[in-house]
Amino acid sequence: MEEHAHALSNLAILLVFAYVGGAILEKLKQPALVGYILVGLLLGPSVLGIVHDRETIGFLAEMGILLLLFIVGMELDLKKFKPVYRVAILVTTAQIVASLSASFMLGALFDWPIQRCIIIGFAISLSSTAVAIKLLHDMKETHTTLGRTTIGILIAQDIAVIPMLLIIGLFGSEHKGAEDYISIVLALAFMAALITALSKKPQWFNALAAKIPEHSQIALLGLALCFSAAAISDYAGLSAGYGAFLAGLVIGNTSKAHKYEEQIAPIFDVLMMVFFLSIGLMIDLEFMADKFWRILALLATIMVLKTIINISFLRAMGLSKRNSTVMGAALSQIGEFSFVLAALGLSSAYISDVGYKYVVAAIALSLVMTPLWLYTVRKLNLIRHKRTLATKRDRLNHD
Asked: Is the pLDDT of residue 97 over 90?
């Protein structure tokens, strides 16, 4: 009984602090997830040491990630994605290629195995959907060209996570044969075919979807479909996230999608809170203090390079200077799915414990620093714009 009482006390403290931390950050017009990370850091072994049960937290966080992929699939609005898909796919591809190139250059310098280069490259290529959308919302840009294009890029990145998970999942296999690579190709082909079919909303699918009953347990049915599909996918040797995403994709294209989303949203919010708390718990403050300048240099390099790459490709795609600059900075952080990719790298032993600590520190700090970085980039762009106008006026006066 004492153990249960202690566990309940820890849970109560965790939830209270998480609520307060999230509320404070939202009051400061920052994403609540940053507050959850800071609370996890505060209550974890690095600071107060109140929460030690990382296994339970980690398990709930994994459930949160599966549910996140399920929600991503459910919210994939193909009609809204279609007008910006060209820019979104090209920019996402450019981010992945540039990140992999940088990772391979580092790998050549430090003699990394090719698997580690791929994992690191994939991880740094992704941006945070939660942080970017929060920034767009605060700037009232969600429904503008800037907002729609940014969301399109985030959707393309979320879809790209699926092949990344499938590829990294192979690294943990000791005996990889041609059939393993064929299964990935078939899985991706099936996903592409399903997305194409659902975008056309065939009559047989609409008729089948109409038979889904409406009842008070619709949230339970949604969760059952999510985790069942994830379990089947995992059992088949594919990523569990692949199954969760496909389940969400199918449910999201039914007429009752909004009811599923409405009922599942509170559960999703709680599990995502736990996920970001788990990130805070994983941060080793002593390690960060000891390697502070290295981590800061790594973070600055990643965010500056991602911003430059994003702006360059967005300008090449014909977007305005202002929109390209804001979008480039808003997408400069490393995303929440990057934690998942890094954790897979750690479990397959292609990322060392020290390397994992570097990755966790860099991702967490990038999420925290993005609002400040976006403000700095926008301010510099405004100063440059004013100088350009002043120069033009001087020329006109001189003439």
From this structure: yes
Choose among 269, 335, 237, 281: nearest CA to 67: 269
CA angle 45, 121, 138 (to 5 degrees): 70
Tokens of residue 196, six digits:
């194409």
Q: Are 239 and 166 in contact (CB under 8 A)?
A: yes
Alpha carbon distance 148, 165 (integer Å) = 26
Q: Which residues are within 8 A (CB) of 302 and not within 5 positions of it... i.e. 6 or more apart?
A: 124, 332, 334, 362, 366
CB atoms within 10 A of CB 390: 10
**What are the tens digits of pLDDT across the range 173-208?**
655 666 777 888 888 888 888 888 777 766 656 665
Instruction: Report the 10 Å Cβ neighbour count for 203.
Output: 8
Cα gap 86→253, rounded to integer Å: 22
Q: Is the torsion defined by CA of 46, 51, 52, 53 positive or negative? A: negative
Positive or negative torsion for Cα 193, 187, 123, 106? negative
Q: How far is CA 349 from CA 235, 346, 353, 355, in A?
A: 22, 5, 9, 11
Selection from 297, 308, 307, 311 nearest residue 362 by Cα = 297
Closest residue by Cα to residue 196 from 151, 152, 249: 249
Instruction: Look up the pTM and report it.
Output: 0.83
- Other Cβ atoms less than 10 A from the Cβ of 381: the count is 18
Which residue from 72, 227, 224 is spatially nearest to 159, judged by alpha carbons?
72
Helix axes 145-171, 337-347, angle to 10 degrees: 10
pLDDT at 269 over 90: no
C-alpha neighbours within 13 Å on the C-beta side of residue 347: 12
Element (H, E) at 318: none
Token look-up 């296999």 returns: 173
